[in-house]
Amino acid sequence: MRLLRAQHARRDREHPLLRLDLQRWRQRLTLSLLFIGFAALSARAVYLQAWHDDFLEGEGEKRIQRVIPIPAYRGMITDRRGEPLAVSTPVESLWINPREADPTPQQIQALARILDRDPDQVRRLMTDRSRAFVYLERLVEPHKAQQVKDLGIDGLYAKPEYRRYYPAGEVTAHILGVTNVEDQGQEGLELAYQTWLSGDPGAERVIKDRRGNTVESLERIKAPKPGRDLVLSLNQHIQYLAYRELADAVSQSNARAGAVVVLDARTGEILALANTPSFNPNSRATFSPERMRSRAVTDTFEPGSTMKPLLVAAALETGLVQPDTLIDTGPGWLQIGDRRVTDVHAKGVMTVAEALQVSSNVAVAKIALEMRGEDYWHLLTRAGLGAQPKSGLPGEVSGRLRPYASWRPIEKATMAYGHGLSVSLLQLAHAYTAFANDGVMPQLTTLRRENQAIGTRVMGAETARAVLAMLERVTQDNGTAPRARVAGYRVAGKTGTAHKLIGGAYARDKYISSFVGLAPASDPRLVVAVMVDEPMGQYYGGLVAAPVFSRIMAGALRFMAIPPDAPFDRRSAPPGAEPIMPEGV
């Protein structure tokens, strides 16, 4: 046996492949390669750490350092006395990276309860691995955001932001406007003064961990520059009063909508501008095109008899008539071609002042037909009709005032009492400031005016005083607007009642009721214009709009401490439920 094993071993040693010493050669090659590799790595490590360490630092910083924006505080909006109307409050926006999130069912339920969301919707958002960034909720109150963060959900982050808050809510919504979720102005003065209010965001360098949490703040690269504050011409007390009285009137008359404008007659400052229906700028659930329309600025309507004072002013300017000029209104109607202009009641012969007092369509139509169309047109254009009022509010409209060369006789007649042209309520109120300033119309502004207003002369001083005196008769017992009176003050103004124009035709049973007035008539300080759209039941301007004017004007005069100019007796106080003089429509 021993001999056999010896023979096998000798035969194996004699095999040609085994005679080569390959095992030792492979060991040496492998050891050599390993040594060379370790040497290269060591040399590279020494190079990077000793001579080129900035590369490693840069790569490390790329992975842990971030430059994050610092939101800028939006400027505050205040009324003329410094009362805050729009302020920015700190909030947080919550977002999640679904690829990092692995919430428990209990965490999802708690999160949905805090955010008042559907748990199934939250679950779908947090388990959608196809996305790495999903907003859970924008502009969350800090205490609620902290409750969410306390849940300890992986992949959930908070981003500091600011949200706009409007203390007066729907009362000032249309003039202030609103901002979007990015704190950018979208409507009203927030949009018009976006650059002024917005400020400039800053930047900060921070260290973040792999989950995106800020570990350390390294440096502030750029400090945020807050937006500038904006001081409006608005008087918050008058604004509240105007909105309250308008809302009550629209509700009581079951009207479709309404608007009010209050102007400082001397400076052209907008003291109040209210619309109804309105919206709450603090709640996006109330946003809708119908509610967000600033009707006093963006909507036009045929002004009806509120145009008659401007027609009379144009006639006085040309010398065609005087306040005591007699006009024969005949049987109460006037035939012009195949059309007829009518009054509610036949008045026979009356003076121009009486015609304005009782709002006679026939009388002003006869005056218009005797005038050159261009004389009336030029006065209307000087009064701002047919052009944007340039108040600074977005959405201003020009209205409609066709060139006088295209007026037919019937159109000259109807335009005398406010049919065939259209205006916004802001335009109409602005035009009446000329009667308060001896014929000069001050430029409108939504900002508190520090300097003297720039004015445009619309008519002569004597003409303006004469028309103002005639307008004061409108609020007396035989006029169309005794319910516009204010106890202790002399009031001048004019009613307007017009069929509503719908689809190019006049609706038989839909009206626009309006009133524009000034007080105190001895030295006018305020102009108030009221428009009620589609009142139900009573529709005359003297019944629907004039009482709203009276209550707003009375409160505004008290707020501004304007002294009375009339005795506190029955002649200056609004009457009770006595019938009023109806006007032609």
Task: Give a quick rundown of the structure.
The protein is α+β, with helices and mostly antiparallel strands.
Protein model, in words:
- Strands 2, 3, 4, 5 and 8 form a 5-stranded mixed sheet that branches. A 5-stranded antiparallel sheet has the order 10-9-19-18-17, sandwiched between helices.
- Helix 2 (22-51) packs across helix 3 (53-64) and helix 13 (308-318) packs across helix 16.
- It has helices at residues 2-13, 22-51, 53-64, 105-115, 119-126, 142-149, 173-176, 188-192, 194-198, 236-252, 289-292, 295-298, 308-318, 352-358, 361-370, 373-382, 409-416, 425-436, 461-474, 541-559; strands at 65-70, 77-78, 84-96, 134-140, 156-165, 202-208, 214-222, 230-231, 257-264, 270-276, 326-328, 333-336, 339-342, 349-351, 440-442, 455-457, 492-502, 505-519, 526-533.
- The protein folds into 2 domains: 68-231, Penicillin-binding protein 2a (Domain 2), CATH 3.90.1310.10; 236-559, DD-peptidase/beta-lactamase superfamily (Beta-lactamase), CATH 3.40.710.10.
- Helix content is 36%, strand content 21%.
- The protein has 20 helices and 19 strands.
- It is of the alpha+beta class.
